[in-house]
Structures are given as C-alpha cells and as structure tokens.
C-alpha cells in the first residue's frame, strides 16, 4: 500500500484570546501513525498562558519565534523556570509537567516533535491538564480532592471551578509571572542558533546536532534531533538512515525542493517545501534537498538516540568507499568513466555549494 508523503501544514485544535494549539493529523499525514510520531505547535499571544499539563509522549520542543518563559517540573524534582527564545531546543521526557507564558507583543511559537509508541493514540499527543474545565481534578469527587489537598470543601470548589479558561488563557497586563532563573537553563535548554557547529561547509550549510553532551535530557526522550541551515542554491547530499530510523522534518524558514526515493528506485516525493511544512522520510528511503536562492532551514528528529547516516555522494560517500573494480562492474563502465566519477565530487559528503 502506498503512503502519501506530501508535506502538510497543521490544523488548529483549540485556542482563544491567549493563543492556540495546532497539530498535524495522522489522518492527513499517515506516516505519523505508521511511525508512531506526533507533531504540533503552540502559539501564545501577548500574556498568553498555557495551563500546567503533561502528555503521554516524550518530545522535543523547539522555539520557532518570539521569547517567553517555560516552567518545567521533572518527576520528583523542583520546578525549573527558564527564559526561552527563538532557536531554543528543550527535551521533554515522559512525565514532565510544563507551563508556557508569553509576556511580549510578538507571538511565541513552539514546535513539538515526539514519539507516540506509548501514547493513547498513535501519531498524536494527548495532554492531561492539572486544572481548568477539563483538568484532572474536575473528574474527582469533592471528597477525594478535600482529602488529597487537606482543604475544606468551599476552598476546594473554588480551586477546581474558578479557572474557566480552556487550556490556554490570557492573563491580565499587570499580572506578575514567576521570573526565570539563568542557572535553570543549564542542561535544560540549548540554543541551536548559537551552539557550536557540528558541520560547517562554506557556501553549503551548517548543522547543530542535539545529543547527550550538549543537552543531557536528550538521552531520556529516546531520539535525536538537529537544526540544519542550507545556503542559497546549495544541496544536501542524498542519504539515508542506516539504523532503521524515521526522519521527521519541519521547515523552519526559506524554501526549496525535496526528492525522496524508495523501494525499486521509485521517486515517491518530488516537491517544493516552504516554512511551516512538515514531512517524514520512511525507514531506509533516500532523501535529498536543494535550497532556493534565499536558503532553507529545517529542524528534524530521528527516531533513534544516536542516528547513523550513509551518504551516497561526496568525498565520504558510499561510492568513494567502494573499490574501482566494483564500481566498474556495478555501472558497467570503463575505467576512464569510473575515474571521472570518482574524482568529480570531492566536496564534503553532506553539503554541496551551488555550481560556479
């Protein structure tokens, strides 16, 4: 059965004056369900506040726009309150409770990509809010809540019913939110736009990889992530994940062309992608990208903590590793053609600058 790999935009699920929540549906992007992957975006307006909650999936948050404050409570740990800004990545393992707040005029937009193999619905995140109209404690009887919180009935009813806003609310202009602490960012947040580069090719592109060294919590979420910035008209080498991982890619900025080739050498995707699009590369399928003149950037997760990629071009590509005789036999060509093929592409195996 063929699976539609076409890039998609998210749809709004809920929201109000304080902001909105948008999600990619596995019904429209079947590879989400097939690969047990969830993808969503949180948008907070000025003074928007996402009520405290947890979800049924581990994920990575990436700040696409704006700046704000995030509260993070790991199981059996104290609350960490961190300032977040564009380019920040935050690993969010199972059981973590978070809240999000934007005090600025510019919208705060956070992308979430995660793994849903243990989720209630494959390909979707399910959230459990601690309070509000659908909060956890609206489901318990007053007797249970009184016993749990050691409070009288009137106070419990006030706490449970006072917040009428649904999941995302707008706070008053004069509300003073908890201030973030600089030291709380350590080991919790990594800014991918400022971090040391793992790959840097002149006129080609740059890569920052999230790993346990620069963001220790990545080890607890079970998958890897990276930010790739491709220069104008540059190419990202054809390659595949050789450890059976899926690649989930969100276009952060710019635009370009993407091709994916699968079983039996069939091109299963050939399209233009732009900022806001999300697409998924199936296991072992080969993908390549060429940026438009203004360049292109994307944020990806790979469904294994330490992904291994094999590139099919460049100085470190698979073809350069094979002996001349094997290449001659495989292509059924003369030694002269093999030599031309081997010597032509000596650039880095990941990024190729545009032709001069």
UniProtKB/TrEMBL annotation:
Xref: Pfam families: Cupin_1
UniProt entry keywords in alphabetical sequence: Disulfide bond, Seed storage protein, Storage protein
Presence of the UniProt keyword Disulfide bond in the record: yes
InterPro entries in the record: 11S_seedstore_pln (IPR006044), Cupin_1 (IPR006045), RmlC-like_jellyroll (IPR014710), RmlC_Cupin_sf (IPR011051), Seed_Storage-Functional (IPR050253)
Molecular function terms from GO: nutrient reservoir activity
Family under the similarity heading: Belongs to the 11S seed storage protein (globulins) family.
UniProt-recorded name of the protein: Cupin 1
């Amino acid at each position: 059965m063929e699976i539609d790999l076409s890039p998609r935009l998210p749809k709004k699920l809920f929201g109000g004056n304080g902001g909105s929540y948008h999600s990619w549906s596995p019904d429209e992007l079947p590879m989400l369900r097939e690969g047990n992957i969830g993808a969503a975006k949180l948008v907070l307006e000025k003074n928007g506040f996402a009520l405290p909650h947890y979800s049924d999936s581990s994920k990575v948050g990436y700040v696409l726009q704006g700046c704000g404050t995030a509260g993070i409570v790991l199981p059996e740990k104290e609350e960490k309150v961190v300032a977040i800004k564009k380019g920040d990545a935050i690993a969010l393992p199972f059981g973590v409770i978070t809240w999000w707040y934007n005090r600025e005029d510019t919208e705060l937009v956070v992308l979430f990509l995660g793994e849903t193999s243990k989720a209630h619905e494959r390909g979707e995140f399910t959230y459990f809010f601690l309070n509000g109209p659908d909060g956890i404690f609206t489901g318990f009887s007053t007797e249970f809540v009184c016993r749990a919180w050691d409070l009288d009935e009137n106070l419990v009813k006030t706490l449970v019913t006072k917040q009428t806003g649904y999941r995302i609310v707008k706070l008053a202009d004069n509300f003073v939110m908890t201030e973030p602490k600089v030291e709380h960012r350590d080991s919790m947040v990594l800014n991918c736009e400022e971090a040391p580069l793992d790959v840097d090719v002149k006129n080609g592109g740059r890569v920052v990889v999230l790993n346990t060294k620069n963001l220790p919590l990545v080890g607890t979420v079970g998958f890897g992530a990276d930010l790739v910035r491709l220069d104008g008209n540059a190419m990202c080498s054809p390659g595949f994940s050789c450890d059976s991982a899926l690649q989930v890619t969100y276009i952060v900025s710019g635009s370009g062309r993407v091709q994916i080739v699968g079983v039996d050498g069939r091109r299963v995707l050939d399209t233009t992608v732009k900022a806001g699009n999300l697409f998924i590369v199936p296991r072992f399928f080969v993908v390549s990208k060429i940026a438009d003149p203004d360049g292109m950037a994307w944020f990806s997760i790979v469904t294994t903590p330490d992904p291994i990629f094999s590139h099919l071009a460049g100085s470190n590509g698979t073809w350069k590793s094979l002996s001349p005789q094997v290449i001659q036999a495989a292509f059924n060509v003369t030694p002269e053609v093999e030599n031309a093929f081997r010597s032509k592409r000596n650039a880095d195996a990941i990024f190729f600058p545009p032709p001069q």
